[in-house]
Amino acid sequence: MAKTRPGRKDLDSYTIRGTNKIVRAGDCVLMRPSDTSKPPYVARVEKIEQDNRNNVKVRVRWYYRPEESIGGRRQFHGAKELFLSDHYDVQSAHTIEGKCVVHSFKNYTKLENVGAEDYYCRFEYKAATGAFTPDRVAVYCKCEMPYNPDDLMVQCEGCKDWYHPACVGMTIEEAKKLDHFVCSECSSDDDMKKPHATFSMSPGPDGKVEPKRRKR
Question: pLDDT of 167-191, one tens digit each?
Fold first, then answer.
């Protein structure tokens, strides 16, 4: 943690202006953008300081939305997906509009109801280079895309892989009525098992695989 500068003191908490919501180091917050037509920025509070004029500043670590990253938003990025960046900043505490929760990907997929304050993060992001950690993630379906928790998928009872209804010739309504599903490969006489592919998020010779298979 950065040292407190002369004339400043550390604060344990800050009450968001006009509310009774209390922010502490480690909390995730929504911060007002200069362009009010844009959605609020999301950041994790690292430290809260007050100067000798009683101005409160927060040191934050920014989350990036997919469209704010170098590669832009991709098909598999969920509406509530964020990347934890290596971009730190100091902002006036008055720009904090509210609190939010940034879940792990695993915990987000287990939520019964997703509220306006719920987001998730499965990647860390280097703002200068556009590199991601982990560098590779598991892919599913015939389209071989990473999992988007916003999309309904059906699981094959044979290979246990997940498929988008449209990729196997079904509508969403038909998929919701299914009691059982077997993909075309498992229903054929060919018992050959294909290796599980991965999707590269950013250039690099090696990468971890995210072993994630969840159904909404």
Answer: 999 999 999 998 889 998 888 755 4
